[in-house]
Give the backbone structure.
Amino acid sequence: MLQQYLRNMIKNYDVIIIGGGLGGLTAASILAKNQKRILLLEKNPIPGGYVVNFRRKGFEFDAGLHMMYGCQKNGNTYNILKQCGAYGKIKFLKPEYLYRGIYPDFDFRVSQCNIQNYIKLLLQMFPSEKKGIKSLFKEIKNNYDGIYKFDRIRTLTPEFIFSINTTCDKLLNKYIEHPKLKTIIFQLWPYFGLPPSRLPIFYFCYPWYDFFKGGGFYPLGGGKAIIDTLTTSITKNNGDILFNSNVKKIIIKNNTAKGVIVNEGEEYFGNTIISNIDAFRTFKNLVEDNILPSEFLQELNNLEPSISAFQIYFGLNIQLEKVGFPDYEVFINPDYDLERQFQDSIENNFDRVPYSMTGYSNLDKSYVPKKRAILVITVFSGYDFWRNLSNNDYKKTKELMAAKLIKRAEDIIPRLSNYIDVQEVATPLTMERYTGNYKGAIYGWAPLISQTGFRRMDSKTPIKNLYLAGAWTRPGGGTTGVMYSGKSIAEKILKMPTVKN
């Protein structure tokens, strides 16, 4: 009733936001808090994109959020949530350990917020690399400081310029000799979606150092807690949110975005339009081809999306601690060759891909049935492998791949298959279906040197008054990255002179 009333009574807004992902919700929260008339349109019944919870047979699962950085006081995430009027309304949990890494020769846990302890751990395993380890960590900190300085006062340091033009393998090779040590130091690469030979230093160094310095966090109640807090902030400040509202076209006149057409033809108008959905779909589906410059379309077609993922969500009939699994985030590595691991992921060689196991119920018991557990297995997965399967083959392949991973996971949790009450599997096609992301990408565009920093797609588009927010624009993917993009475009809009559409 309320949504129908809004459709009938209100048609003109200061800002219309297409998509209720974390970037769009962040922008909407800040704009509404600053008295802008906001309309956020979400095609699904609930907002959040990848940051959502879902229920299956009495269990509640977090769809994709593993860990966040910058949630400590004055951290990036802390400051953005504070700007949204949301911090203090979300309780962040901190696992005892940042992560556990399992390799053929090593099994160790990394302490939270203690880089010196981590260095000591590495020196115990590789004493001959003492000089290189200390020099590497010094340079990582210098890169972190250079990025921080650029972000705050736009000062270009030599370290920053080097970091945006150089891949991580060059940094590792500069200081570290032992190939196993290089892999161990780069353990958090799944949070970025590329191996060291393809990932620029700056894209790795800032989050990595922040994780080790400030810690890894998880919101009590899962990603839903963040989404609920932001949506409440928007509506409390008189912003409007319409669910089940699929934007079909952006209304453009004289190369200026004027509004949107939704569902069966309803029209809404705004001074500014922000697209928080997949950039590829924004320009291919919502904008007529003849409006965009041919050079822009050619560049768009040449951009590479990030890899997708395959996930198994388990509702277990036993507590994980009682079967020898007390950890929150665990990375299982079959070998030390990250380049091959990435290729295996693209090719869906599930017999040997690296995988992670996240014991959500070991950290957050707020939405777990009594004496039960929630566990999620995650691997990267190439989209093209799944795209052309028939419905029957898709179902069989999904079951086969899940069985392979469960069998491997029983090396860590013996008899895991006996404890499963609920099992839900998501493939790259699932990611694509629920989020609309091109090829089921989980991090927007792949964070290559050619697609990050100044080279990443700008929030400003060739169409006047049309902007982007989310993983497809600067600075990039991940929860803090997409929130930062929403914050940035909101601040830009607030500085614009007020214009009537």
